[in-house]
Amino acid sequence: MQTTLPAGPAAALALYPCAAGEPWQLVEPAGLINTTWAVGDPPRFVLQRVSAIFPEPIHARIQEVGEHLRARGLRSPRIVPAVDGSLAPPAPEGRRWRLMEFVPGCTHERVPGPALAHEAGAMVGRFHRAMLDFPGDLRPLRPDPHDTPRHMAALAEALAACGEHRLAPGIRALGERVLAGWERWTRRCSVAGLPVRPAHGDLKISNLRFTAAGEAVCLIDLDTLSSMPLACELGDALRSWCNRAGEGGAGPGLDTGIYAAALAGWRGAAGFATREELGSLAAGTWRICLELAARFGADAYHERYFGWDPAVAAGRGEHNLSRAESQAALAASVEGQLAALEAVAGALA
User: Fold this and answer.
1) Nearest-10 crossing angle of helices 316-336, 275-302
2) What residue numbers bound the domain in which 18 lies?
3) 164 burial class (0-12, 13-18, 19+ CB within 10 angstroms)?
């Protein structure tokens, strides 16, 4: 293991003989968790300073899953070992360095229309199908991100404690709406008994690479690899891809045309899923919207947010409250269209 902890990308690249001395440039827009640089001109590698929230064993899992995907004809970038053979040498503050092959193409921050949604769904479907026979261990390495009851309990605790907080009126109003929505969800919906499937775990559209012509190339950022019901995996993807406002924009609402195109693309490529799984996807989308609203609402009280942007909001609390309001409005949009969304998935059964 490295005893010297390089602080910046130039020093970190010295750990990789194949990339040492190469020019590097910060990738924009910056990620919320990991910091990423493109290395080489034209880029040949991607250097990341990986957040300490990801445990060290995830890197071996990424490499193992990548080998499995490539053996089934899918593209997946390799991790380049450091000079000592390590997949993720230590970096300052408990983080780690990681060098990966660069995948040429385009990254989208939002889905522009049904054509890209269909292509994205098909790419994710191919990934899920290829992972059905993955022989390795995909048990979660971190606490379950979709433990929705836990997030609702944390929100309720924040509401009880927020009395003198400067944002208390907004946090309380938001929290009461979200908790009421969750009560309606639990009366109507359930994921009990659904199969647990291999999952990417963070299918925002910026974690897919596309050609300039709009063809999907591969999935990237596999730090969240795990297993979970499709209702959670695809529910998170659909609430993100189909939001007319993008992530955190004005006027959130679910675009049913993009929703239908994404599901059709996924179903055509994946070729599996029980009727019950397909029937759970609309409820899963609603659930993840509520879950994120609860998380961000609690974070507004605690003033914690790893991606706070001072250009967007005056403080961490304000930024989180804005994000919570956006997800709560999206949840209301999904709830209002739930029967229509269930019909879209039902037609694919």
Assistant:
1) 150
2) 9-101
3) exposed
